[in-house]
Design brief:
The protein is α/β, with parallel strands linked by helices. It contains twelve helices and 17 strands. Strand 9 and strand 10 form a beta hairpin. It starts with about 20 loop residues before the first strand and ends in a 21-residue tail after the last helix.
Length: about 400
């Protein structure tokens, strides 16, 4: 099975006719929801378990660009590509690189009329698009996974922290970088990359923060000096998120005697560290609305593979957590698409998982090698599009 060419990608008419398997997807992020949606498109039931209490439990984060050669392929197979284009922002493909000393625009990409290579969509909008496409009661909220038990030959047992358990013939770990499902297959744990994000929010930007709105434009703007950087990204609803990027220890805030709630203290540190930068850019450090959000960047060891298990597999960050260089969600959705299609087209779950991993693992290993050690690229003066990692 190949989904590499979006123009030749056609739905198979051969659907798995074995007894209905019990498929449990752990994690209601873009990957998990995409997998469930495509399975349902083929008449295969799946239940998604998520630790959050409901779809509105937390802010879903910033904006994502879904690429024509991976994320959009998954949305096409899910029957949601036209809906995506109606909600997404083609103008969000604008990209600016700013000189950190002068604050002037250097590189400037303005999307062409009709350009759809990687339109932007708010993470919350993407989640709503996927959630609203699922059959009622597909997602079981308030289910925090404690462990996965049972036999590799099945059934598997999902044990939740509330004391309940469910059986499944296949467990799909879509539960992010700190996956509990991954522990069945691998001892690997994410390692700190040496680079940390500090997220700052700006609301009603055209009225309250016109200087920042003018710098960022309709898409994204980046500046860096080799040791520190700023990446600003416009969301819908007149919001901008700024990621303060630094090469620092993961515990740099507590090492300074502060907590994440000490906004003024953190701001003083940042203004000192960025004191040589243009005053136009230092607005992004000085004028944010509300608290900062600390996001140290982690990645799985390279390569991350595992011995085949016929009843457990992984997708997205659970399988291949990498630095946020614009591929994370896109790969998660492509993983989800290919796994769902394999389950629809193969006679047994074992065969389907083997076929999926035969494609996914080499692809993710190649991408891991390509990005290994490149978190520091976020501090270069080349434009990057950080794809915010799932912080589970």
């Amino acid at each position: 099975m190949s989904t590499a060419d979006p123009h030749s990608h056609e739905r198979s008419t051969t659907v798995n006719t074995r007894r209905t398997p019990r498929i449990a997807v752990v994690g209601a992020g873009p990957g998990g929801l995409t997998c469930a949606r495509i399975l349902q498109q083929y008449g295969i039931d799946a239940t998604v378990y998520d630790r959050e209490t409901g779809p509105e439990a937390r802010n879903q984060g910033g904006t994502l660009d879904l690429h024509e050669d991976n994320g959009q392929i998954a949305l096409r197979e899910a029957g949601l590509l036209d809906d995506f284009f109606r909600v997404s922002r083609a103008e969000g493909q604008e990209m600016r690189r700013l000189d950190h000393l002068a604050g002037a625009i250097g590189f400037h990409h303005v999307p062409r009329e009709g350009e759809r290579f990687k339109p932007e969509i708010d993470r919350g909008q993407l989640r709503d698009l996927l959630l609203n496409s699922l059959q009622p009661h597909t997602v079981r909220w308030g289910h925090t996974l404690r462990s996965v038990g049972g036999s590799p030959q099945g059934p598997r047992l999902l044990h939740f922290t509330d004391g309940t358990s469910v059986e499944a013939d296949l467990v799909i770990g879509a539960d992010g970088g700190w996956s509990k499902v991954r522990r069945v297959l691998s001892d690997a744990t994410p390692e700190y990359t040496g680079i940390s994000f500090l997220e700052a929010w700006f609301h009603d930007v055209d009225n309250r923060h016109p200087g920042i709105a003018g710098l960022v434009g309709q898409g994204s703007a980046a500046a860096a000096d080799g040791e520190r950087g700023l990446f600003a990204q416009r969301s819908s609803g007149d919001h901008i998120r700024v990621y303060v990027i630094q090469r620092v220890p993961a515990d740099w805030i507590t090492a300074a005697g502060l907590t994440a709630e000490d906004t003024d203290g953190i701001r003083d540190i940042l203004l000192d560290r960025y004191r040589a930068w243009s005053p136009r850019l230092r607005q992004m450090l000085r004028d944010n609305d509300g608290l900062y959000v600390d996001r140290p960047l982690y990645a799985l060891p390279v390569p991350h593979t595992w011995e085949h298990d016929p009843t457990v597999t992984l997708l997205g960050d659970a399988a291949h957590l990498m630095p946020p260089l614009g591929v994370g969600v896109n790969l998660a959705m492509l993983d989800a698409c290919e796994l769902a299609l394999a389950l629809a087209r193969h006679e047994t779950i074992d065969d389907a998982v083997r076929a999926y991993e035969k494609t996914m693992l080499p692809r993710s290993t190649e991408m891991q090698h390509a990005l290994d050690g490149h978190a520091a690229d976020l501090l270069s003066d080349e434009p990057h599009d950080p794809d915010e990692d799932d912080t589970r």
